[in-house]
Amino acid sequence: MAVLPPNTNAKMLSNAVRKTVLVSLAIAAIGFVVSAFLNFAFLGVGLVLGTLAGAINLRMMDSKVAKAKYEGTKMAKKGIALQSAGRLLAMTGVILGSGFVNIFLAIGILLGIVIFQAVLLLFMLKNLNSSGAF
Questions:
Q1: How much is the pTM?
Q2: Torsion of Cα atoms, 81 then 105 then 45 then 17, to 10°
Q3: Buried b (16+ CB within 10 A) or exposed e, 86-115
Q4: Which residue ranges make up each domain of the chain?
Q5: b/e per residue, 36-59, with b = 16+ CB within 10 A?
Q6: CA triple 75-117-51, angle to 5 deg
Q7: What are the residues whose beta carbons fall under 8 Å from the beta carbon of 69, sequence distance 6 or more?
Q8: Residues of the chain under the 50 pLDDT cut
Q9: Is 1 exposed, middle or buried (0-12, 13-18, 19+ CB in 10 A)?
Q10: What is the pLDDT of residues 88-108, one digit of tens each?
């Protein structure tokens, strides 16, 4: 895990994660309503599913990093890399598989994940900036 700047604490980071989940779910809900209004309901469903997938992935990664930090072994860190690659492969399969069902569903899932990651990045940058890292 990267070394945090001196003014960054765990509470600040957990607040950023909580805000990320809430804001990205709000964006997905708005996207769902707009896409349903425009007769692209599968796109909206995909947005919500992609956002939920991003949130679940973040929670799983957080627990694995905390466990590896506690254990501190190379095998634990290697396990994180393998599990991350497995989740990436699984999500790729879900997106490709949903593309065979409905292309707008696949695009929505992909956009939901991208929106979640972008919101997470913005909140982390904001917190790092306010802590004096930049």
A1: 0.83
A2: 20
A3: ebeeebeeebeebeeeeebbbbbbbbbbeb
A4: 20-121
A5: eeeebbbbbbbbbbbbbbbbebbe
A6: 100
A7: 1
A8: 1
A9: exposed
A10: 999 999 999 999 999 999 999
Token readout for 95 is: 């997106």
Structure tokens, 122: 């913005």
41: Cβ contacts below 8 Å, ≥ 6 apart: 32, 35
pLDDT score of 71:
66
Per-residue model confidence (pLDDT) at position 72: 64
**How far is the C-alpha of 21 from the C-alpha of 87, rounded, in Å?**
19
pLDDT tens digits for range 54-63: 999 988 887 7
Tell me the residue type at 12.
M
Residue from 52, 70, 62 nearest 10 by CA:
62
From CA 84, how far away is CA 111, in angstroms rounded? 20
State the amino acid at position 60 in one-letter form: M
Quote the CA–CA distance of 64 and 67 in Å, as a whole number.
5
Q: What pLDDT score does 5 carry?
A: 52
How crowded is the C-beta side of 82, counted as CA atoms within 13 Å? Answer: 7
